[in-house]
Amino acid sequence: MLAASADLTDVDRHATDVLTNPNLLEAFRYFTGPPLSADDLKTLSEGVLSPARLREDPAMVRRIVDIVRMGLDRRRFPWISQNRAPTAEERAAAVVASAAIMAARSVGTARRHEGKEAQELLVANTLSGAGITRVDTRAIPTLNLAPNAGEFCRESVLGSRKADIVVRLWDHRIMPIECKVSNSALNSIKRLNNDAAVKAETWTKDFGTRNIVPAAVLSGVYKLRHLSDAQQRGLALFWAHDLHALVSWIEQTR
User: Fold this and answer.
1) Fewer CB in a 10 Å sphere around the end CB: N or C, the chain?
2) What is the DSSP letter of 140?
3) H or E element: which one contains 42?
4) pLDDT score for 137
5) pLDDT at 98
6) CA–CA distance, 13 with 6 (Å, rounded to integer)
7) What is the pLDDT of residue 228?
């Protein structure tokens, strides 16, 4: 990435090439302090990151570059503030530091993904053990295409949003379940409030409160006020370490 932008001293001239290369774009996001997620970069720049759109919209490319430039980690890249080329030692230190940050974030993401997969499997096995039959994944644009009462499916699009698990309760309502793993109170905002709770609102709007019971199975660290906010937005919460509560609730719908 440094080589592609003349050690960040000539980013503008090479910006489109950098942003349309997935590997260089990822490295570029990590040059800020703290690093920017792809979603945050799109939101702050009011842009998109698809190569086709970037190539046809130079103004958007400039906005994205400007956002990263404003958030640039000046301690890691001291030569930028001083308007000079880096020394060999500065360049090497910046490369090592950036690689370390990317590696740490990558490991954290992999762990969350593995945790989520394990949690989904745990919920599915618990439902099966409770006598709820697993059926094939399917698209569910309307409620009549959902599983039958006492059945569930995994990774299915309900309306316009994908649910990790979709259960047809015994009283024929639909319970979409999101499985969320959070490793920090800050991370919980994205996992719970900006994702699961938003989906709950969408499903409730699309299908109505009498037909939908949105739920989330949680593990990890969450702030109490974020949990309360999610509940107020229509999301029923259960904990992965106490799935008996989920099974017991479902049984009460017979």
Assistant:
1) C
2) B
3) helix 38-45
4) 95
5) 85
6) 10
7) 92
CATH architecture of 110-251: 3-Layer(aba) Sandwich (3.40)
For the chain, what percent of residues have pLDDT higher than 90? 50
Task: Tell me the C-alpha to C-alpha distance, in Å, between residue 210 and each of 144, 170, 173, 213, 237.
Answer: 14, 14, 7, 8, 18
Question: What are 101-104's contacts with CB under 8 Å, separation 24+?
Answer: 101/30, 101/35, 102/26, 102/27, 102/30, 102/35
pLDDT > 80? residue 115: no
CA distance 172 to 41: 42
- C-alpha distances in angstroms, 72 versus 31, 36, 131? 6, 10, 54
Ranges assigned E (strand) in 130-214? 133-134, 151-158, 161-168, 174-182
CA distances from 50 to 11, 19, 54, 116 (A): 19, 9, 6, 27
Task: Tell the burial category of 170 from Cβ atoms under 10 Å away from its Cβ (0-12, 13-18, 19+).
Answer: middle
- The token pair at 155 is 């990774």
Write down the domain spans for the chain.
3-86, 110-251
pLDDT value for 252 = 95
For 47-60, the pLDDT digits (tens) are 889 899 999 999 99
Segment (H or E) for 218: strand 215-220
Residue 1 above 60 pLDDT? no
Taking the C-alpha atoms of residue 229 and residue 218, their distance in angstroms, rounded to an integer, is: 15
Distance (Å) of CA 131 to CA 4, 115, 134:
58, 25, 9
